[in-house]
Amino acid sequence: MRRAAAAEPTFERQNRILSTIKNIKVTHGILEGTPMRPSSLLGAAGTAVVLAAVLTTNTANAAPELPTDGRTMVLPAAPSEAGSRFGAAASPSVSPYAPSKHYGAGTVIDCPKGSLCTHVWDNSSGSYEVFFLDTCTRYWLANWEDRGGYFNNQTGDRATATYYGRNGEKLTDVPVGSKGAYNWSPVWSIRNCY
């Protein structure tokens, strides 16, 4: 299997973009304080569109570096109703604290060995928030609504995770090695291991 050419390092790409934008501004009089003619404005906009298309194509063709031991999960598409709710949206959280990070839909996530990795849509950021539940405890969830998913990449005999409802009733057990989609709305807490 052939690998795609390695992607240009991020800082080099950013420097190249900034340099190109500066050249566009100087060429079209933006930095010199002179007003732009409509044709110059269209030319600058066209150049920016072409530049964005070239850079996006380069990034899309780059082969991602992924672990090969089966410990990845792919985040699903954004929910169709994302962002359509009224009122201020609050970010999902857990207590006690667990590390988390935001990722866009379709991102391939590495779930480290020893973790229960969960993802939930965050309406406030328009992305998925992935929680890495590593410490063996019961986590209380806040603002976990609707769809998301999990990957139980923990190890050991006591690493079955359990989801609990509002009144502490057991909703389901999540065995080691399992992954899938899940509706978080009825879940109020997660015990990742015993």
Note down, in words, how this protein is organized.
This protein folds into two domains: 52 residues; 109 residues, no CATH class. The strands form three sheets. Strands 2-7-12-9-10 form a five-stranded antiparallel sheet, with no helix packed on it. A five-stranded antiparallel sheet has the order 3-6-5-8-11, with no helix packed on it. The longest helix has 24 residues. It contains two helices and twelve strands. By secondary structure, the chain is an alpha+beta fold. Helix content is 22%, strand content 29%.
List keywords for this structure.
194 residues, 2 domains, alpha+beta, 12 strands, Peptidase inhibitor family I36 protein, disordered N terminus, five-stranded antiparallel sheet
